Amino acid sequence: MKTKYIIFGAIMVLILANSCEKDIPRYTEFKSYAYANNDESGGNWVPVLLDGATAVDIAPPETTTSTAYLTEIADIKSKMDNINDNQRKSIEYWTNNAVVRWNEIALELIAKYNLIPGPNDDDTYTLPNPNTPDGPPGFPFSHPPYASRALAYLSVAQFDGLISAWHYKYQYNRPAPYQNDASISYAYEPNDIPSYPSDGAVLARVSKNILSTMFPLEVAYLERMEKEHLESLLLSGGNVQSDIDAGVFIANSVSEIALERAANDGMKNAQAPKAVSDSIKAAAFERFGWQWENLELPVRPVGLTPLFGKVKMWSIDDVESVRPIPPPSLDSQEYRDDVEILKNYADNMTEERRAIANFWQDGLGTYTPPGHWNRFANEFIVESKMNPLRSARTMAYMNMAIMDAGISCWDAKYYYHYPRPIQTIPGFRTIAGTPNFPSYTSGHSVFSAAASEVLAYIFPEKAQIVRAWAEEAAISRVYGGIHWTFDATVGTDQGRNVAQFTIDVAKLDGAD
């Protein structure tokens, strides 16, 4: 058994060593910027989960001439007079758009927990359990479906919370401390967005709440980051304590609604027991005459999340309505032609194709394909100088589409249960690790196409390049030898189709 663990450990080291730079979460270097638009009417936008911006009710703030408010002003001035170097660094880190920073924290945690549990001494496997997150193995295993869901709930909760905050900002219209007291020097680019309630506080608390549920072993770390963020809001000169308290109140209310949905969306049943998995496999064989086999040693009794395709979607009522056409039968000319295409790629691998396969690998120890597209979105947000509300909208719709696309993809994977190339081509070798779930359609293709379509909608000037990236991500899996070409092409169409449902919702939210 010792040899088995040495082999598994060596494989893990190689996987992590070969993860390209694009796979590793990184700090986006940017300073505060003047927002391109304040979105004064943002409080009228349609939320995703809330019944409306006023579904969370907060009390009117004290006036800027009240004793209570003037005391708060004096308090932050005293704190700012005694600021230390670490606090200055914190203010610089969080900037005036913490949507990016909390997304980066999520990507960091996804990468940290994207490690597949190894076998036990008796060749069995133990699944991560949210009820005993310490394990072994530790919870969660943040594979692509898990990552897509974590990012979706984080982004949707941020978006809904900020819509509510924006509504009350412009209802009560209380200026920021630095606008009320000329002696207060604001750390960021000035703007005319009212400070009550604090949008930064909404982001800090809602992000901490959602990510603490998704990554329960990181509660202490997330609480520390939240505390640091909330303190920076005061020390920046942008908020007083009552601004922050109101933002936290909104965040707690929105978090509760989001986490209630998460608790009942079906994800807890996604990693089906062996009997259910075997029945899905048998049904596919009876239906089509083929079935995917897990070639991993020792064999895992169940592939990755066979019932993720049953998880509740955001913008689509029935996953079967977006199920793609069947893949070619194993005795068809289309299948035989694809065998030759894959063999040709394997026998004539070029440095360019290998580089493309490596760039889009997004395997174990990385932030997964959904995370890759979140990184792109972060960069576009900063480049476009979006305010936090519009940034959260971008992330919410993109991650809703990515999660819906993943659910649709997993529905197809286990409905069709199509074999991987390595299973049906004798002696075939891959340059990428073969995942432990069926082939059709390609997850990378579906995730990437969905993300690129939403980004093309929000950033039309980027449409050509993001769609080209999605097609490159799709073909990368074919170059790697782990997918058929039709897995990639049909998966790309599937992701685009699913994303259109999300875009249709976005077009009606009042932001365009």
TrEMBL record:
It comes from the Bacteria. Residues 395-503 form the Phosphatidic acid phosphatase type 2/haloperoxidase domain. Gene3D superfamilies: Vanadium-containing Chloroperoxidase, domain 2 (1.10.606.10). One of its GO terms (molecular function) is peroxidase activity. This is Phosphatase PAP2 family protein. It comes from Maribacter flavus.
